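One-letter codes give the sequence; backbone shape is given numerically. An example follows:

. . .
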Amino acid sequence: MSHDPSVHSLRGLSAIVTGASRGIGRAIALAYARAGADVVINHAPDQDCPQDLLDLIGAAGGRAVAVQADVGQPAEHARLVDAALARFGRIDILVNNAAIKGKGPYLDVTEATWDEVLQVNLKGPYFLAQQVARQMVGAGIHGRIINVTSNHESTPLNNASVYSISKCGLHMLTLCLARELAAHHITVNSLIPGSYLTPMNLEAMTDPVRRAGAGRWIPLGRMGDPEDIAAAAIFLASPQSDYITGSSIRVDGGASLM
């Protein structure tokens, strides 16, 4: 599936995408750039600069900058905000995509695991959105905040209780921010992916039997490709979604119906 950038143009807009060096975040960053947006590509401290992604964006005539920052540490959020303002002069779109799973049986979960997962998956989005929203309000920008949650915000993932709780919290964060920021004409929505071919689901990617099996319980018959959700992310960032806030779009091939 490919996206026609002429349908939902983001030309003249600037976006920050967290966790953008791979998987869903990478696909969203690339799709935004192809639609005309300038993009700040966040990558975690334990990941290399995604130079290949920067090259792809440059080859398409787009502008992007990669910024290393641990989104679970609010003290590092200024790196992302400052990079966007210094390079592009404004922030119109924030995509809170970065996440970690922290899998393990409930009886074995440690306080350290709880803190690590909640910091990246919930605390980080909360305070990064706050910094970005302050910039939007100060500049009079009718911006967009998009949170990438999970089917497991409402259906618990076995042996990943902290992850499921964090995504449930991110869903409520979306609703709270949508209500408060509407007065400033900032919309806040979420995207709900199901099973995707991403590094987070590495086992399913590399095991053809498991990959085929996953498709059997997804009504559309396959796992999601990151480009599937990138198209929805473009829509939520575009002028065509001006009257949508506090909403969640499921991009899961119908998995939530089962």
In short: The helical segments are 23-34, 51-59, 77-88, 111-139, 161-181, 202-206, 208-216, 226-237.
